[in-house]
Every structure is written in C-alpha cells, then in structure tokens.
Amino acid sequence: MPIYYTNNGELFAWYKEDTIKKFRSKISSELIKTYGKGPFDEKRIVEILFFTLDLYQNDFLKILQNETELAFYQNLFLLHEFSSKIHQEKLNESYQGVINDKEFAIYRRILKLCLEQACDLKLNYNVEGSSEYLKSKEDVIDCLLYLGDHIYSYSNLLASQDLINDSVDLKFTPDDQFYFDFKHHYGYLITEVSKSYPDHIAEAVVGDDDFNDFVTALNSCLGIDYGAVVDTIKRIHEHLPGGKFTLDEPFIYPKNLENLYGIPFQHGETFFKGLTLNKDNKMSLKEAVYRPHNTTKYLYRPFLIWNVDGKDLTIVGDKIFIESIHSLCTNAFGWNKYPIEWENECFKKYIQSKVSKNDKILEDKAEKLLQENNVIYDRNLKYLKKWNHRNLNIDNDLCGEIDFLFIHNKSIYIADSKHLIARYDMNNFKNDSAYFERNKKAYNKTIKRKMNFLKANISDVQEHFQVKLNDKNLKIEDCTIEAIFIVNTPTFIMYNNEFRIYTLKSFRELLENTFIDQEYSLLIDEENNQKFLNVKYPYFQKPIYKVFDIKDYEDE
After folding, report:
1. pLDDT below 50 — which residues of the chain?
2. Partner of 383 at 20 to 30 A CA spacing, among 75, 107, 419, 469?
3. Are 274 and 267 in contact (CB under 8 A)?
C-alpha cells in the first residue's frame, strides 16, 4: 500500500496490483473446488456471490482481529480525518491520477468500517503512533483496502441481481482466475446511465435552513448550545498531549461542557450518547455493508468507544464530527431518522416538521415548473370539484390523495412526488426498489389504484378541471391517463420501473417537450455470429437478440 501525499500535505492510501493477485488466486481455487466452472443458473449465482462475500468478509475481520495495537487504529483514524478534510474542502484534484472519485468514496467507507469494527476489540497501548509505525503497517492496510473494495463490489452485484433478474455471471480466465461479469447489455447500460447522475443531482432541491433548524432544535429540545459543543471538543484536543488522537473516558465531554459553559451534565451526556458508537449499538460487518442507510454507524455517530487496556475510552475527530452533523441534517432527519437517545416530544415535533418540509420543497419546485410552462394542473387533491359543490371525495381506499394532476400534450398525468434519500450505488438503490415494488404499501400499487380510479371516473376528472377553470367547454375525455413519479435525486429503478419516474431535471424536460427517451443500438461479436440489440425503455429487461450468422456473409 503506497502512502500518498496530496498537494496540500494530507495522507491517503490505495492498494496495489500485487494484493489483487494474492487474494484472487486463493478465492478462485475455493470457487472451483466448491462450485466448479459453470455454467450457473440464477439461483446458484446468488449462492456463489454470498459465498464469495463471506470469504472476503472473513479475511477482512481476521486481519482486524489480529491487529490489537491502539496505534494501528489511530493511524486509520488519521487517514480518515484526512479523507474528511479532502471531502469537505472539495480538494478532489489532490488524489487525481491515483484513484478516481468513486474509489475515493469507497476508500472512505472502508476506513469507517475498520474504525467501527474496532469497537469489538480488546486493544493495547504499547506503541506510539508514528510515520514509521504507519509505514510498517502498509501491507496490512493494503489488504484491508483491497478486501473492503471487493466486499462493497460484490454486495453491489448481489443488489444488481435483485434489481435486474439474472443479471450476473461467474467466469474464469484461461488460467482459472475468477471474475464476475454482467450478462447481456446490462453492464454497458449501467455505466451509461450512471453518467447522467451528476446532471440530475445538479437540479435537485435542498433545504436551505437544515443546519440552522437543527441548531435551534438542539437548544430548544435538548438544552445544548452547538457552538459550545464545537468549542469544547476543540479545547479538549488543544489541552491534552494527544490532540485529536486523545482517548479518554466518555464523561470528559459532558463534564467539560458543563465546566466551560454551564450546560447541565445530564443534558450533555444525552447529547453525546446520541453521537456515540460502541460494541453494543454498532452493526456487524455484514449489517454495515447490507444496510447502508442505518444511522448506527460512524458516519452518524462520530464518538467511538474503544476498549484499551481493559478500559472503555472515547475518541472523536473534529472533521468527522462536522461530517456527522451534516449527514444527520441532510440525509437523516428529513426521513424520520435520528438518534433514539435524543427522543422527547419537542425533538420528535422538530423531526416531523423536517419530514413535512422535505416533501414540500420537492412539491414546491415541481409546481414552479408546471407554472413556468403554463400547464393546467391541480395540487394535493383530496376531492374532485363538482358544479353542484357536492365534491367527490378521493382521499380514501378507492383512490387516495394525489400530489399533482395535470394536463399536458393530450395526456392527463397523475404525479406523486417522492423525496428519496440520495443514493449512489446498487446496494442503496435496492432500498428504493423495495419502496416502489415490494413493500406492503408499494408506491407502484398505490399509484396504479389512483390511475384506475380516475380512468373509471374520467368524466369527474373533466368536470373537476371545468370547475377549476370555469370553462364548461373543456373536453379531456379523449386524453390518455398516465401515472408518473417525481423524485429529487436519481435512482436506478427509474430506468426500469412499471411507471415512469422523473427527476426534477427530466420532469422539466417533459414539460418543455425536450425529454428524449434514449435508445441504444448494440452489436455484439461472438465466435461465429453477431448479435444486434436495440434497447428501449424499460432498459433492463431480458433482451431478444437478432442474430446474424457470419458464415452467411463470408462469400459476399
């Protein structure tokens, strides 16, 4: 594992080619011995993926369990603090040429995994951390980075197999080295559609006052001054010889908060407990990988409890503390996720206000786009208007409240908005798929019920808009009815869902009549023939190939 220095003096690391060869050969032998070399059906591929993941996870944990020196984890802590600084200050150019943005994100997640799992270990303080010590552990960290990278990679392949039926295959090179590959056009298209994510995210809406709202709620509901907390952490780091590497008993933070700012110890203890990760509340390695948006992890709980020489001590970095608070404000509170230790009536009310506001800011932006494009619409419909004022209630089991109902290009659109948590990989996208397709109150089932109700009552829909526009001549009975979703950030299922899913970017394009359904024409060369494939939405369905036998054209 080479240790790299950025242009600004921060350290980061990534694994080398030799490590890949070391583990790949061993696991290739295990796979051939256990499963042979194929071919494999869909069920067996899932079994093999779990088997491979277990091999990688077991090796990962064995390495961590063999490293019981505190200095080892302090060095990983240092690397993570540097990574947070690079991330927060957007110094991405500092590591370009060594690893790309996606690899850097995985690198940060692997470091978090290591630091979380250290909560389970009995650590010893025998060696002082130093650049020499870090250098002596390069190969160990190299193996952890390689294994962690592939743990996330194979976890994502499992999620892909769940999102796209029978999408993954296991293959071997001529020298019996294993690799997983996507079937058909899936790998190519996954890469292609992911290129559009930044453009979708660029037009997403965010809460303007998320952080300030939290600071206010913290004071009102928990009796904590946020500035005092930040200053207390800073002063503890400055006062003790270890600086940000300082480990001390957990009470030191609420006690110093009380001594310095007069905030009652009990209030401070409650606050810090809500940001603490220990052996009792941390997830296992498997859970941490498979449940990426669970908030009992280092990303949301920056105070780690490690057992050192038989005593439970806590460590926190100033960079991870800022990152955690930001993550809670932007990717947790608005989705009703918060530390259970902070729960009281006041804080629950604050959380509910953030959930409601989350939905509203997306709907407000969607409404603005409808207005800008002069579209006839109505919002948050609970009933359909009647000339005789005996309005038809739809907020019931037969239909349900409709976020938007609008008329565009001879179509009547039923649109429900879903402010999803921002996600960036298949393991995360799988959660969205469950919300749309498999949960008891799946979004697709709900919107299909609404669509069927309106189709059966199209004359009532027409009368609703006639009343709204005060125009009895308005005719829409010949319009088609289409159900869609509006989301804030891109999700993989929007390329394969039963009902179309539009981000704010693609929704704007729909209303502006500039939206283009991409089509892909692929030519696949095989030994004796060529396969031609034309792929349209939905993009991830098992394809039907048009096959050309090369021999038929050899004499031409």
Report:
1. 553, 555-556
2. 419
3. no
CB count within 10 Å of CB 546 equals 10
Taking the C-alpha atoms of residue 430 and residue 413, their distance in angstroms, rounded to an integer, is 26
User: Can you say whether the dihedral through the CA atoms of 58, 61, 65, 69 is positive or negative?
Assistant: positive
- Given this model, what pLDDT does residue 74 score? 95
Please state, in angstroms and rounded to a whole number, the distance separating the CA atoms of residues 251 and 314. Answer: 9
Per-residue tokens: 74: 């302090």
Give the β-pairing of 168-172 and 122-123: unpaired
- Residue 410 to residue 478: CA distance in whole angstroms: 8
Report the candidate in 146, 161, 90, 80 with the shortest Cα–Cα distance to residue 116.
80
Instruction: Provide the phi-psi class of 310: left if phi over 0, else alpha when psi is between -120 and 50, else beta.
Output: left
Q: What does the alpha-carbon distance between residue 298 and residue 84 come to, in Å, rounded to a whole number? A: 12
Output the pLDDT for position 17: 83
How many CA within 13 A on the CB side of residue 139? 3
Q: How far apart are CA 360 and CA 381, in angstroms?
A: 14
Residue 29: what pLDDT? 95
* 3-class DSSP state of 449: helix
Integer Cα distance of 254 and 271 in angstroms:
8
422: DSSP letter: P
User: Alpha-carbon distance 200 to 420, whole Å?
Assistant: 13
Question: Whose structure tokens read 């976890």?
Answer: 155
Q: What is the DSSP string of 349-388?
A: HHHHHHHHHHHHHHHHHHHHHHHHTT-EEEEEESEE--TT
Helix (H, G, I), strand (E, B) or coil at 308: strand
Two structure tokens written together for 43: 């069920």
Task: Give dist(CA 152, CA 424) in Å, integer.
Answer: 12
Kindly give, in sequence order, each residue whose CB lies less than 8 Å from that of residue 466, ignoring residues fewer than 6 positions away. Answer: 387, 472, 474
Nearest to 53 by CA among 175, 180, 172, 142: 180
Q: Are 104 and 79 in contact (CB under 8 A)?
A: no
Q: Which of 379, 409, 410, 384 is nearest to 395 (CA)?
A: 384
Please state the three-class secondary structure of 37-93 as a single string. Answer: CCCCCHHHHHHHHHHHHHHHHHHHHHHHHHCCEHHHHHHHHHHHHHHHHHHHCCCHH
Q: Which pLDDT value is given to residue 211? A: 95
Q: How many other CB atoms are there within 10 angstroms of residue 306's CB atom?
A: 23
Q: Which residues pair with 78 in a beta bridge?
A: none
